[in-house]
Amino acid sequence: MQDLETKQDLDLRLGALISEHQHMPGALMPLLHAIQDNIGYVPESSYSQIGKALSLSVAEVHGVVTFYHHFRTHKPGRHVMQICRAESCQSMGSEALEAHAKKCLNVDYHQTTSDDAITLEAVYCLGNCALSPAVMMDEEVYGRVSAEDLDALIAEARA
């Protein structure tokens, strides 16, 4: 994921990704993943371009993007923190961890801190059930995360 400098740069990247995926069967999901992987989010301004290329309505593209919690519609912070909300993690205290994170960061899910350091997201399984509760910061998964561990992750991300 790289920062985009201009709307023209964004349009060029989107155009290239759409061209690469538009002829695939069932292209929408792979295309949305490619856009988010490359740009960091799926801009709402891209829905029309995506829809036209895939013969879908803007509403259909919007419906898929908003249905799946994985997709972001706004640029994320420098770091993305995901807190697992699956049953195993909930049984081991992730709801309290989630409340602690929201209070410390002063954001809700799908929001970014005022300093643009951290975007908080829910995730519904990190595959780390034996070490619940689990948190992922960027691409690194942490297990048996306590409030103190979470505070340390937040401090490191803000440093």
UniProtKB/TrEMBL annotation:
UniProt keyword annotations, A-Z: 2Fe-2S, Iron, Iron-sulfur, Metal-binding, Ubiquinone
Cofactor(s) required, per the database record: [2Fe-2S] cluster
Record has Iron as a keyword: yes
Family annotation (Pfam families): 2Fe-2S_thioredx
Binding-site list for [2Fe-2S] cluster: C84, C89, C125, C129
Keyword Metal-binding: yes
Domain of life from the UniProt record: Bacteria
SUPFAM superfamilies: Thioredoxin-like
GO MF annotations in UniProt: 2 iron, 2 sulfur cluster binding; metal ion binding; oxidoreductase activity
Free-text comment on the cofactor: Binds 1 [2Fe-2S] cluster.
Family designation: Belongs to the complex I 24 kDa subunit family.
Name the record gives this protein: NADH dehydrogenase (Ubiquinone) 24 kDa subunit
